[in-house]
Automatic annotation (TrEMBL), chain A:
It comes from Diplocloster agilis. GO terms for molecular function: lyase activity. PROSITE patterns: GLY_RADICAL_2 (PS51149), PFL (PS51554). Residues 633-756 form the Glycine radical domain. This is Formate acetyltransferase.
Automatic annotation (TrEMBL), chain B:
This is Glycyl-radical enzyme activating protein. It comes from Diplocloster agilis. Pfam families: Fer4_12, Fer4_9. PANTHER family: PYRUVATE FORMATE-LYASE 2-ACTIVATING ENZYME, PYRUVATE FORMATE-LYASE-ACTIVATING ENZYME. It catalyses: glycyl-[protein] + reduced [flavodoxin] + S-adenosyl-L-methionine = glycin-2-yl radical-[protein] + semiquinone [flavodoxin] + 5'-deoxyadenosine + L-methionine + H(+).
Amino acid sequence: MLENKSAFQVSERVERLWKRSTDLSKSGKRNVYVDNPEFLVYHWSGHSAGFSPATGEMALSDDERINLGDHNCRVDTGVPFPYADEMPSKVDGFEYSVTNWARDYAFFLDHSPAEVYPDERIVSEFHWQLDEARKFVYPEEVTELGFELRQLGAGGTSLAHTCPDLSIGLKKGWAGLLKDVKASLEKWKTYGNETRVEYLNAQVMVVEAIMRFIGRHADQAEKLAAEESEPQQKKLYLEVAANMRQIASGKPKTFEQAVQWIQVYEVVERINGHGNGYGRLDQLLIDFYRKDLEKGIITREEARELLAELYLKYGGNYFSFGGRDIKGKDATNEISWLGLEAYDMVGGYNHLGVMWHPDMDESYYHYACDVVTRHGCGVPTLVNYDVLRDSELYSGYRYEDAWNVSYSGCQWYCSVGSEYSDHDLNSFVLTAPMQRAMKRAEEEACGEFETFFSIYEEEVERTAEALAEFKNRVYKWQARVWPEMVTTLCMKDTIDKGLDITDIGGARNAYTSVNVLAVPNVVDSIYAIKKVIFEDKLYTMAQLNEAIANNWKGQEIFRQIMLKQEKFGNDEDHVDEIYQRVATNIRETLERQHNIKGFHFRASLFQYMGHTYAGPIIGATPDGRLAEEPIAHGCNPMHGRNHNGITATAKSLLKVPFRKYQGGSLQIELQPKFFDGKEQKGSYIEKFSRAYMKNGGVQINFNVIDLDQLKKAIDDPTNPEYSDIVVKVTGYSAHFVVMDREFQKEFVTRINYEAI
Amino acid sequence: MKPSDYKKDCGLVFDFHRGTTHDGPGMRTTVFLKGCPLHCAWCHNPESIDPHPALQWTERECIGCRTCVNTCQFGAVQADEEGIQIRRDWCQECYQCAEKCPPGALKVVGTYWDVDSLAAEALKDSMFFEDFEGGVTVSGGEPILQYRFVTEFLKKIKEAGQNTALDTCGLGLREAYESVYPYVDTFLYDIKLMDKNEHIRYTGMSNQLILNNLIWLIQKAGGDPDKKIWIRTPLIPGATATEENIEKIGKFLKGEVLKGIERWELCAFNNVCKDKYRKMHLEWDYRDTPLMTEDNANRFLQIARKYVGEKAVLSGLTAKD
């Protein structure tokens, strides 16, 4: 049963849709997998080139792969794609070319079922991703370099969180997009540019396949309507058929058709295997809503229900609300409200973000904080619009692109339609250069801390250069290996240019952002080294290297001394200065690296889940951490080390200017009893987050979780009592019981502010 | 500054709480000063009573390395089958043992702070004070014992434009309260027990001066909208949490006195400080006392409301049933 925590009534129809959607999640039919722990740590598995394909020749067994939880809109049927052997690339031969890719895509979509389920007004889903049927691997010259890079502590996969500008597609419809493709094709034919002609011909195949796919939904709905005797359901089928007919050939005309258009776009785009964000839902839909209201063909309640249906259908959407308009005014509108109210109605798992700024409608932000507290699932994520925009401007985006930035999932944001975001899946494991620096310091008999720090900086640079070389090798191949053709259709300029967004020169902005893993552990380690090795000279670097190599065995006194040193996250300037130095250094080092697309590298102070598995891979660290312990989560202090409370931790984080970075969220896990005796639960979150963001904070992920209940859920995962628990893992939420055990275990060790 | 470096004009601080919502209006930073004239049987900060720095050993954190024993030149730190023992009469207060202790199991409770450093530390959370309408609270122990220091400290906080609160048991010199008065926005004033003999029995001191000081304070603050007085009564099972006591306090507060009071907070008891007693090798009568039930706490609230109406509020953790 849906436990409705809001004031909004759920109709029986939506409740049935809710049940189907959550049952899919809870029964593990929406899980996302990765190949191995190395993928989480280095963001590169050395196996498949993306996430772990669920089926097909690159699929791994359940024992090998790691389950990230219900973080997918793919609905698992338990069987592989039935036509996998008939894929054109298998029958006619595989090639690294856009034509070869597009033929596979068209065949794949033509053989994906067009399904319409009872009760649905918003239809379309998918059961297989293209990488289950088409080989998604880079040539050997890329993988070779990947293994070398991993030795130096970095890696990367180019695959996620771009925000196409859906307003382009909503305005033109598929037919309009096709017309643009054909016009561009004619132009490039005239110029005699065969490469672009080939690309645009491939685009024609892609768009036509999508139009057929939509048309088949209309056929299916009509067929079901003909067979249906129940008048209400028959009417629904006919409505679906009419909507699909309209968007197969023309533009979406109504709010409902626009919502349906978005769902179809998400399906045919996400089928590529990435996890893109889809932008600012309130800006995309407001005009449709207003027009329908004027015509009197929609009510507020209906619009809310349709949005709820979209959430349930897709299973966790990366949409954002709020922010500012191009003139800098508050962009909050009726859809911002309806979008949150729709979530409030169905609750649970989702990935919506609210983009706060100081001029935001206060009552709206108040409501957002109320929702995140009441539901306790970390939804919506609270982000600071001004910092997102300023971070884009800082990196070099033009204002016309930067103002339209959108939270795009996890800790990411993207300038809608004008950016190829290669930023979810590049990882820099900062302990690796530190460990090399420690070795060198021993060999070079380094006696001064500053000399040691210079060696560390040199080693950071070495890894950064190797990472840039690797990414550039990937970029050389990317547009041929796995073009993002559906995404490209809703980008600015790309169709006109006849270039894929993954191609050199395709997207307006193509920076490479890198998740820096283990910042707090490196800060704590370097600070302890400074104090104990260089200032107090209690031990030598050689002794430290040996102790680390042996996982502190027989060195408990030494370990305790390193542990006892001040730690990052307590608003203590001595150690937070090291945080500033470490963060500034990695940022500047990455900014010195350039990709062949003409853009520099950006540092993100967050890595979404490598911390859980990194322990044994990186070994013990000088901060007193044992190899088997997890490492710190993003730029949040290591578990249990922030003894000065939530405000001190927040202040420590704020000692770097987040606009110069590409994200870095503050994670706060609160226990329900934290709120005991507090009059308004949401108001605490509201005041705290406002103060934090006013002072430069970029993002807060709040969890309200009952630790005792989670511990019980780990031991008794099949107990239905625990099946509904949703937690925010980092920027994304998942049902707790379907997550991998290591995540569960790590999750319950996170610091909880149970009383203040 | 090392804890032993006593300086004139310094205050002896034993703890800080940042981000607290229990010590006055909004979200606050609370500074706890060491030393208290009362010896309440239920005291939540037993380490705060002694007005000097003191060594404290935490068994849970000790790895048994004997670094402390080997460090002490005076033989004041010894190890036996019970763990680490500190011969306080032999201790020369150099605190090298604590400084050298690898896991930090030996700690010095109580650090001397000068006014400027303490104000800087207490103001670290200023960025949160505005949205939460909070500020800085001085608590203890009994801060009024160090009133000259507290006056200067609170003056600094006021100069920084922040709200101040003083958490006091009311037992102090009139001139002490006169001294701090201009710099305190909210007085958190404890009335624990109304009966004088009971007060002596549970706290070691009479409540005469406490009540006189309160009347004086209410008269002095009379009509000044910027001065707020919150009465706080801990609900201690068997001691203060009796119908008779709450009735008596209610009767004392109603009428003229009530006009000067913004709220009367009944603070439900919890035993989370039991570890502190263990660390100090002290017995504590309340170590196994459970949380008060919500119903029971509400019963006392209803009694209080008879006298002071909506000014009575409940705080602290309670059990559901």
